[in-house]
Amino acid sequence: MLPLAAFTVAFGLAFGVAAVHQGVNDWEAILMSSFVFAAPSQFAALEMWHSPLPLFALAVTTLAIHTRHMLMSAALYPWLQPLPKRQQLAMVVFLTDSNWAMALGEYQRGERNLGILLGGGVVLWSAWVVGTIIGLAFGEGITDPGRFGLDVIMLCFLLMIVVSGNPRAVMILPWLAASTSALMAYWWLPPYLHVIVGAVTGGMVAILLPERWFRVRVL
Amino acid sequence: MNSSPVLQSLLAIIIMAAIAYGSRVLGLLIMLRVPLGPQVRRFVDAMSNSVLIAVIVPIIVHGDGGVRLAAFAAGTVAIVLRSPLASIAIGMACAACWRWWFV
Description:
- The structure holds two protein chains of two kinds.
- Chain A is mainly alpha-helical.
- Chain A folds into two domains: 2-165, no CATH class; 167-219, no CATH class.
- Chain A contains ten helices and no strands.
- Chain A has helices at 2-21, 26-35, 39-48, 55-80, 85-91, 97-108, 115-140, 153-164, 172-188, 193-208.
- Chain B has two domains: 1-35; 38-103, no CATH class.
- Chain B is 86% helix and 0% strand.
- The longest helix of chain B has 29 residues, at 5-33.
- Chain B is extended and about 60 Å long.
- Chains A and B meet through helix 1, helix 2, helix 3, helix 4 and helix 8 of A and helix 1, helix 2, helix 3 and helix 4 of B.
């Protein structure tokens, strides 16, 4: 738990610094970290944070990133089942990529104590918010962010999420389709549509591929 | 839209938070009724990564040499070392070095 919390502070720090660099106000970044509490969609939102805010594109992008959390909370359902419904709904407030993976691992090892899920979530949430605040304070002292490579934090973070999720050879085609369509949409369609186009194309291609390709694990 | 920037940001954050929490809850609510089929799973799986790819590809294509080197290094480190923080740190270092020498 502690290493994970330390990681989360560091990620929050990275987010805070990136937010300053993108011209996001302190209070916006802090509110985002406190209430959205999801690194990938927050980093993706930074990329779109220019006035006037593209609300629709922001909403669709967040939705596309978060559909994964639907699968995650669905996978945790057997563990939460004994609880009353209202408590079930409260348990998933702090659900994120990292503590979900941790929680599922614990469950498979026979752990039935739900306190781990909630407690872990609260710890990670605090770490994320504290990290963001430190990052904001730190980022403000730097005048030329590009010189220190601070502008590539967001890019590296998102790239890391994509490739570290155990990439499978079968995903090459969907990802290629997503990149190509996103790039074309970026050039020829109105701003920010490329994110939606890429997401849907990638998903569609994955459905169209033959079923048996998904049964082979190459990597 | 001509509302004030503050209201707009608040609205954007509320929308994002609602979707973020909504998807966590929706997974539970759906499981109460129907189990998700393999097709749906596959679509969601591919889409959640494709959306990130769609965000980063134009940045890499239109970025300077430092950005491209950073992306390459961070990707390689993430695959080989499986360490998220090392991947970001090395990406930043690469971008900084590139600009130190070439700009």
